[in-house]
Specification:
The structure holds 2 protein chains of 2 kinds. Chain A has helices at about 20-30, 75, 85-90, 100-115, 120-125, 135-150; strands spanning about 1-5, 10-15, 50, 55, 70. Chain A is an alpha+beta fold. In chain A, strands 2-1-5-3-4 form a 5-stranded mixed beta sheet, with helices on both faces. Chain B is α+β, with helices and mostly antiparallel strands. Chain B has 3 domains: about 5-205, Aldehyde oxidase/xanthine dehydrogenase, molybdopterin binding domain (Aldehyde Oxidoreductase, domain 4, 2-Layer Sandwich); about 225-295 and about 360-435, Aldehyde oxidase/xanthine dehydrogenase, molybdopterin binding domain (Aldehyde Oxidoreductase, domain 4), CATH 3.30.365; about 305-350 and about 445-720, Aldehyde oxidase/xanthine dehydrogenase, molybdopterin binding domain (Aldehyde Oxidoreductase, domain 4), CATH 3.30.365.10. A 7-stranded mixed beta sheet of chain B has the order 11-12-9-19-16-17-18, sandwiched between helices. The longest helix of chain B is centred in the first third of the chain and has 28 residues, at about 120-150. The radius of gyration of chain B is 28 Å and the shape is globular. The chains are: A alpha+beta, B alpha+beta.
């Protein structure tokens, strides 16, 4: 069955079992592999993308649920790593293995959309669903604070 | 001995071709010369590859030989080489080296060269080799410039990527030299006298940004799970619910008749399915109905019961202990000591939980006589060998593409998943992307072994520890012995041993291996003795470390950082610990509080001082210690794999709890200034966590907690 939706502001149509989770459609059908598969149960955040501007776990979202909606992945966050969060992530040298970081950045982006100067507590509670096995949490906080500060200046 | 082969292997050749020059440098000075070793049998020059290519445009391509799993070696190793060749770092481009162990491997483990990134060994293992290689290239460039200008080479010096003749004011860039100069046929000899002084380092110690970071921020960094090959299909394996169990029969025809299923493959310990989409392969895997053979070694294994039974093992004669350290007569010394101490410590299994589940893409040719593979692995050369061995073809017939690893932590130095992908691809002669689900990755994991540790000590009337015994009981062989020695503690009589039992579970190195549980037990026990003697635990350790200035410095530094003598705020308490790992020394202080209702321990702050010798990439080194502390604390507070009737009881992050951002303490790291050769930094943050938290807990509550992890139920039980 052909499923129509938009990814990174481009219309896409893909012929796929509608029960297929969005993460696999993005990764294997559309080759947008920045969105990662990790837990498959929506508890680690590695697969986080935006659905109509909201952060969602694409590993538990059947593609049938995104018909005619707009999905943004890490590839669509900016053309050239220029999003303030991406810049801050580089400045703070956040990633280690890097596998969770697309999800971390996508999750953080929805925070700054709604709150341009979050407190540390607001950052932590917004980000707490995203696991990082390498233990980069401290740097993630610093990077979000940096991006927020640079956004204001 | 075949000397002509040895000569060929040690020959360093400079190749000038096209728009640049390639320095073909055999790695290291030690080349196996015996014709009957694997390395010696390799053909001479053809197996020598390139480390560095200088383009006429000045670009310097440096190959990195280590797996990149987040530890930063892909940047740190080229930094070392660039330093000695005096390269302009902004002109350096990094690529992963080919997987040719005779050239890029290190000659550990009995002489055969391997490319393997484990045990925090990359920087310390390659440091001297890459410095000499860099110095050699710099020497060639200087000589070429000297000939070009007709001046003596000793009048020349280098600045980053430029040769300078101070007397005449002439300057020539490395790229220009490549274009105009004559280059020697062979690289000159170099030795330590050709190396830079530490104070002249321009790149080492200056924290250049990591090569892999930009791609990990825009999603373009390629992990093997991201690889897409034309014609690729998907594979999964339903593995035995009991480790190492065997399938007898399964609903083969039903599965093969499912939509999208291409074939099924019987493996030793499971059934593989290949299908044309991820969705189809997942459905087929879920529909598998497999009869498993009874009698796997782990069939009746119950982890809690077995762990409880370990208490009867030490000294009982049930198991012949393997001696690790025997010094003086510890038993006799304990008996005549003024005070005797004994305590048992326990640890449960823990799981690697790397964020990228295991996977690999392997494409076996139609004829089955060659293969191409894309793999994220810590053991690149072993993985390439494993594919060749599985197919019965030569190593050279496997085209191997190393990918980024979404975490390794010791799990990805085994090639089990690479062999599986090879078998599935061989069955269909098409490229197969093998994917382990998170549940697969956890349930068929290879865990850090559970264990019991019995420690005993004797203390004389002066308060000196005169005798120490330590017996670790568990499965896992040498994994249990890692970190059990106390080389920095001044104790004259020591008896350290291991009692091995078997349960048939799959076990493996896990970040810092046995140091996690051994250093916890050692440091908690030291604290118990200090507490009983009424001596401050920091000062007590100072006395034990009195003959090791480096260790004392690390301990003193963490005491200063944490302002140890001032104590903790109300309702908080601090604990201290010390550990050596991978040649580095570390000391940690944890500040915690406890919610007595819920039993949750909260770590508010962690200070860590580390002596890691010369620090190649200081900011990244801090990140490694920070990360290891988070992983260590996660294992200390939360992580637990339990097994009932051979079945792993956890399945995903829902029931395998790991540290989250809200539970992470503020972390402060400081490195001791040093001119010693670098030591490992990926792991030393782990072993200092257990003791520091346990000791803080005792200070806060007056109770000792002796079973990892310190989960809330255990905390409540201890507090009564």
């Amino acid at each position: 069955m052909a499923v129509h939706f938009s990814v990174n502001d481009r219309p896409v149509s893909t012929d796929v079992d509608p029960n297929t989770m969005l993460v696999w459609v993005l990764r294997e059908h559309l080759q947008l592999t920045g969105t990662k598969f990790s837990c498959g149960t929506g508890v680690c955040g590695a697969c986080t993308v935006h659905l109509d501007g909201q952060a969602v776990h694409s590993c538990v979202l059947p593609v049938s649920a995104v018909v005619d909606k707009s999905v943004t992945t890490i590839e669509g966050l900016s053309e050239d790593n220029s999003h303030p969060l991406q810049q801050a992530w580089i400045d703070e040298q956040v990633p280690q293995c890097g596998y969770c970081q697309s999800g971390q950045i996508m999750q953080a982006a929805t925070l700054l959309e709604s709150n341009e100067s979050p407190t540390r507590q607001e950052i932590v509670s917004h980000m707490d669903g995203n696991l990082c096995r390498c233990g980069t949490y401290g740097r993630i906080i610093c990077a979000i604070e940096r991006a927020a500060a640079e956004g204001k200046s | 001995m075949n000397s002509s082969k040895a000569t060929k292997l040690t020959r360093r050749t400079v190749l000038k071709a096209g728009a640049g020059v390639t320095f073909a440098v055999a790695l290291g000075q030690i080349v196996p010369v015996s014709a009957d070793t694997k390395a010696g049998a390799a053909t001479g020059q053809t197996s020598i590859g390139a480390w560095v290519t200088i383009g006429t445009d000045g670009e310097i391509l440096i190959y990195g030989p280590a797996a990149e799993m987040g530890q930063g070696s892909m940047t740190a190793l080229p930094v070392i080489l660039a330093e000695e060749m005096d390269a302009d770092w902004s002109m350096v481009r990094i690529e992963h080296s080919p997987i040719e162990p005779e050239i890029y491997g290190r000659g550990a483990w009995g002489g055969s060269r391997r490319m393997i990134t484990v045990g925090s060994q990359a920087v310390r293992g390659y440091y001297q080799i890459l410095r000499l290689a860099g110095a050699q290239i710099r020497k060639v460039v200087l000589q070429a410039a000297a000939e070009h200008w007709g001046v003596p080479v000793h009048e020349l010096s280098t600045e980053p990527s430029v040769v300078v003749h101070a007397d005449s004011g002439r300057r020539i860039s490395y790229g220009e030299i490549v274009e105009v100069a004559k280059l020697p046929e062979h690289l000159p000899d170099v030795d330590e006298s050709d190396l830079k002084l530490v104070e002249d380092f321009r790149v080492i110690g200056h924290s250049v940004p990591r090569h892999d970071v930009p791609g990990k921020v825009d999603g373009s960094a390629e992990y093997s799970i991201d690889v897409h090959v034309p014609g690729m299909v998907y594979g999964m394996v339903e593995r035995s619910p009991v480790h190492n169990g065997r399938p007898i029969a399964y609903n083969k025809s039903a599965i093969r008749g499912m939509d999208g299923v291409i074939t099924t493959v019987r493996l030793e310990y499971g059934i593989g399915v290949v299908a044309d989409s991820v969705q189809a392969v997942m459905k087929a895997k879920a529909a598998l109905d497999i009869d498993w053979e009874k009698g796997a070694e782990a069939d009746a294994f119950n982890s809690d019961e077995s762990l409880a039974a370990y208490v009867t093992v030490p000294g009982s004669g049930q198991v012949q202990p393997r001696s690790i350290v025997q010094k003086g007569d510890a038993r006799a010394a304990i008996e005549r000591a003024e005070k005797q101490y004994q305590a048992d410590f326990l640890a449960d299994h823990v799981y690697h939980a790397q964020m990228e589940p295991l996977n690999a893409v392997v494409s076996v040719s139609k004829a089955g006589d060659s293969a191409e593979a894309w793999v994220g692995t810590q053991a690149t050369s072993s993985a390439r060998s494993a594919i060749a061995d599985t197919l019965g073809i030569d190593f050279d017939r496997v085209d191997f593409h190393p990918c980024y690893l979404g975490g390794g932590f010791g799990r990805r130095s085994n090639s089990d998943y690479v062999v599986e992908a090879t078998l599935l691809s061989n069955a269909v002669k098409r490229p197969v992307k093998l994917i382990w689900s998170r549940e697969d990755d956890l349930k068929y994991g290879q865990f850090r072994p559970m264990c019991l540790q019995r420690l005993e000590a004797g203390v004389n009337e002066n308060g000196d520890v005169t005798a120490w015994t330590h017996c670790v009981v568990g499965d896992g062989g040498g994994l249990l012995a890692s970190g059990i020695e106390i080389p920095f503690y001044e104790i004259p009589n020591q008896s350290i041993e291991m009692c091995s039992v078997r349960h048939g579970m799959r076990l493996k190195h896990w970040r810092a291996v046995g140091h996690g549980f051994n250093k916890f037990a050692i440091e908690a026990f030291v604290d118990e003795i200090a507490d009983d003697l009424g001596v401050d635990p920091y000062l007590f350790r100072r006395k034990l470390l009195r003959n090791s200035p480096r260790a004392l410095n690390v301990l003193d530094t963490v005491a200063e950082m944490s302002n140890w003598s001032s104590g903790a705020p109300h309702d908080h308490a601090r604990g201290i610990s010390f550990a050596e790992r991978s040649g580095s020394l570390a000391a940690g202080v944890a500040e915690i509080s406890v919610d007595r209702e819920s039993g949750e321990i909260r770590v508010h702050k962690f200070w860590c001082a580390v002596d890691g010798g010369i620090i190649i990439q200081p900011d990244n080194a801090v990140a490694q210690i920070e990360g290891a502390i988070v992983t260590g604390l996660s294992s200390v507070l939360f992580e637990r794999i339990s097994v009932e009737d051979g079945l792993v009881q956890q399945s995903n992050f829902t029931d395998y709890r790991m540290m989250r951002m809200s539970e992470t303490p503020e972390i402060e790291v400081r490195f001791i200034e040093s001119e010693a050769a670098p030591s490992g930094l990926g792991e030393p943050g782990v072993p200092v966590t257990g003791g520091a938290v346990a000791n803080a807990f005792a200070t806060l509550t007056g109770k000792r907690i002796r079973h990892l992890p310190f989960s809330s139920d255990r905390v409540r039980a201890v507090l009564g």
